[in-house]
From TrEMBL:
<dbReference type="InterPro" id="IPR029068">
    <property type="entry name" value="Glyas_Bleomycin-R_OHBP_Dase"/>
</dbReference>
<dbReference type="InterPro" id="IPR037523">
    <property type="entry name" value="VOC_core"/>
</dbReference>
<dbReference type="InterPro" id="IPR041581">
    <property type="entry name" value="Glyoxalase_6"/>
</dbReference>
<feature type="domain" description="VOC">
    <location>
        <begin position="7"/>
        <end position="128"/>
    </location>
</feature>
<protein>
    <submittedName>
        <fullName>Glyoxalase</fullName>
    </submittedName>
</protein>
<dbReference type="Pfam" id="PF18029">
    <property type="entry name" value="Glyoxalase_6"/>
</dbReference>
Length: 128
């Protein structure tokens, strides 16, 4: 059995003020907004910044514990990864079968990558 290939597509963190953090990523690091979801009832405002960061607005968050919301992981074998994750004791969360809680509490979101995307991402040498 060959193992799947995967990469961390984003890290979701809670912040008390999304605009302040977006400003930092833009003005200090030059990273633009990739996507944005406004607050909608029970869902908080969320912004995805280029560079794999998702900011989730939580004005009551005082940190530092509990800041990490989840890891978004792109995979080349979605169904195989979900089956292997269940065998390892991962539990599906109410958000859907691709939202998993690992033993110990870490939450991950499994995302199916388009053909060749994982190989292309893994081929990048971030230190080059």
């Amino acid at each position: 059995m060959s193992l799947p290939r995967a990469y961390v597509e984003h890290v979701a963190i809670r912040v008390p003020d999304v605009d302040h953090h977006v400003g930092f990523f833009r003005e200090v690091l030059g990273l633009a907004i990739r996507d944005e979801q406004p607050a909608d009832g029970a869902r908080p405002r969320q912004v995805w910044v280029l560079g794999s960061v998702q900011l989730i607005e939580d004005p009551h968050f005082a940190g530092p514990e509990g800041r990490l919301a989840h890891l978004g992981i792109m995979v080349d074998d979605y169904e195989g990864v979900l089956a292997r994750a269940a065998a390892w004791g991962a539990k599906a969360l109410p958000a859907g079968p691709n939202w998993l809680e690992l033993p110990g509490g870490l939450n991950i979101e499994i995302l199916q990558a388009s053909a060749g995307a994982v190989e292309a991402a893994l081929a990048i040498n971030p230190r080059a």
